[in-house]
Amino acid sequence: MKRLVVIAALVGAAPALADEGMWTYNNFPAAKVKEKYGFQPDQQWLDKLRLGAVRLAGGCSASFVSPDGLVMTNHHCARGCIEQLSTAKQDYLANGFYAKTQAEEKQCPAMEVNQLVEITDVTEQLNKATASLTGKQYSDTLKAEMSKVEKACSNGDDKVRCDLVTLYQGGKYNLYKYRRFQDVRLVFAPEHAIAFFGGDPDNFEFPRYDLDVTFVRVYQDKQPVKTPDYFKWSEGGAKENDLTFVAGNPGRTSRALTIAELEYTRDVSLPKTLMYLSELRGMLTEFQKRGPEQKRISSNLLFGVENGLKASKGRHEALLDKKFFASKVAAEQELRKKVDANPELKKKYAAAWDEIAKAEAQLLTIREELNFIEQGNGLSSSLFHIAKALVRAGDELPKDNGQRLREFNDANQPALKAQLFSPAPIYPELEIARLTYGLTKMREELGAKHPFVKKVLGKESPEQVATRVVKGTKLKDPKARQALWDGGKKAVDASKDPMVQLALLTDPDSRAIRKKFEDEVESVIKKNSELVAKAKFDIYGTSQYPDATFSPRVSFGSVKGYTDNGQQVAPITQMSGTFEHATGQDPYALPKSWLKSEKVITGTTPMNFVTTNDIIGGNSGSPVVNKNQEVVGLVFDGNIQSLGGEYGFDESVNRTVAVHSEAIIEALQKIYGATRVLEELRPGSTKVPPVKANPAG
């Protein structure tokens, strides 16, 4: 991370002329794009981009690529669906999937697609409701008002999703209204071996040779949805120096955090996260050695853990860079100096940074209990999370909407119920292993004498508790979950299911530590972060982008290589390089379909490429489009330098990594014979028969 540099945006001023920023659709710097690239998007252009780009509720991005509801995203974004549809006899992760007819498209057990249709600024309404309030009163009022706004927006329609998005750390609030699609069906997925070619060693690296793509389709009333706002396919794809736009949903950036928050992240949060994930990776690696079925059912979880581990390591290295961190300190000091120099601003804002620092100190005292009792590090089991949701639903649903925990608001219930009642398989052996690990870590971190640890374990070992509750529960059956949901609190309280009883036993402690966090930490940080944001607006203006919040954004850039350790990295790789890098051994073992097709593939076809677009986790699956809004690529990663992008952006080395649009076409035609998908992407292209067809299994 030595190449991280300080740029104007880090201190809240208008950014310099660089390809920086994950911009909202109602505050896009079109003039800046014109100044640098000679093209100025107008509002109509931005609106079409917004409607063509969609969000996967689980944490990824995607896009419509045909008028009949065909959606393109990453293979790793659809891994959950692919794994859930697989069995020991038909492993779609290993063998790939292609629906040759519409009737063969398989419904994903728990996937949701959101299309942003409207943005409303509700800042004034929220500020008026919380004016002069602090602490618990501020927090409760803010949550109640947010729930009120979201409920009025969705108006009880399950096909509508409304999210109130906090921007600029509370400086602004926007209401995002989405079309919600919950019937999503798998159309095409390549084999895992090519979708994640190079595995963890190549993750966040470049050059790359991955076909990280999957196609799904959205349905309503059992018919494919008509989607007139979609992206057409480009003829030649991305070329060096081309202007590119990425429309996606970046998950989170921390570029506007205070130094107190960054210090806590650097010194406490990230080191603890790295230790936890490292040990979890070790446990899962050993679990996979039990046999091929154990490897199959845990591969998606291990993929996520390894990805999170590498990303956290990169972020930690960025914050450990002394020069970079010193620049963040200097930026904050400059802002505070300007505030202190103005008596009016000083009165309104000067105390905000110190209040945040106090809240971070308070968080340090409750962090372990919060993580292991409430936030899932201790009771780390899908079945337990289901039981916990059922227990809380019995208490929360009878309350007024604005007084509930936010995950139980009317606006959030369709997604919650889709997860709760999903027919996706749950594997007891993996559940026991996960819960045993979590309980062991909980005892280690909180101490064997901690009241909560004694309450949960009693005289049993972590493995004994995990085995007893997993083997004894009926919650593996969606019908059993539905019955408890429908029966409400009375049915839940009367249940003898051991997993439900564990959730009932632990819920009072879990709620208590959550309440302490919300009242004494979260509310203080939210209120004072809002003041810091307003101080920046007063001093620097509003011509800046907010931190990412897993809400729709657009970035601009160009296809461009970079220098790494003195070596020039070319911006585009070729399909022939995929075979040159294959060793026959994981993670560089190509699937049989590729090995059989090597001679018919045009080796000079572009495979992967990099751009200067500003992205972060959550952008996976985002389309890369040109100024004509034609697909030229598919985002699937960033380079290792981009991991520091959570805290700052350096155009000289931060890169988006994407699958080239021509590689997707070449593979669909010559390797997989996926003519039905090809015809949707490029109508008329299948009139000439594909050279070769090796459909995925």
Which word captures the global form? Answer: globular
Average per-residue pLDDT, rounded, comes to 94
The CATH architecture of the largest domain is: Beta Barrel
Calculate the terminal CA-CA distance, rounded to whole Å. Answer: 42 Å
Beta-strand percentage range: 15-25%
What is the tally of helical segments? 24
Q: Unreliable segments (pLDDT under 50, ≥5 consecutive)?
A: 1-16, 689-697
CATH topology of the largest domain: Thrombin, subunit H
Query: What is the C-alpha radius of gyration, as a whole number of Å?
Result: 25 Å
Summarize the amount of helix as a percent range: 40-55%
Task: Report the strand count.
Answer: 21
CATH level-1 class of the largest domain: Mainly Beta
Major sheet details = 11 strands, antiparallel
Helix/sheet category = alpha+beta
Number of domains: 3
EC number: 3.4.14.-
Signal peptide: 1-18
Enzyme class: hydrolase
Protein name: Dipeptidyl-peptidase
